[in-house]
Write a structure and sequence with these properties.
By secondary structure, the chain is an alpha+beta fold. 52% of the residues lie in helices and 18% in strands.
């Protein structure tokens, strides 16, 4: 199976899952979040779903709510996406945005220290 087909399926699953999760009536699912990417295996049996959550204090409850709703989400996904097999959903937290913010802060701190003249070094 060509890889571009898997990429198209992954993107379609990502889009549908994002809208399905937004329709859930679970109080633990709130705040700022997004489904950043979905990786569907070549045999279409599993879909690893990466979710980015910006509020760290809500992240644990959010992930538990998603894992509890995985069966419901899989059933609804099977109704909306026409595939031979509906993949089993595996949820993981995507920490790339938080890591990017951390790196940006480190670079800004370095820039601030470079802008200050160091009085201890004689010229």
């Amino acid at each position: 199976m060509p890889s571009y087909r898997i990429d198209r399926i992954s993107e379609e699953v990502r889009h549908k899952l994002d809208s399905l999760i937004r329709q859930l009536n679970d109080p633990r699912i709130d705040g700022t979040w997004s489904v950043t990417r979905v990786e569907v295996t070549r045999d279409l049996r599993y879909a690893k779903t990466y979710v980015s959550i910006l509020e760290d204090d809500k992240a644990d409850g959010f992930m538990k709510a998603l894992k509890n709703a995985a069966g419901y989400l899989r059933r609804e996904l099977g109704r909306e996406v026409d595939l031979r097999y509906t993949p089993e959903l595996l949820f993981e937290r995507d920490r790339n945005i938080a890591y990017g913010i951390h790196i940006s802060q480190v670079l800004n701190d370095l820039k601030i220290t470079e802008d200050k003249p160091d009085e201890t070094i004689p010229e």
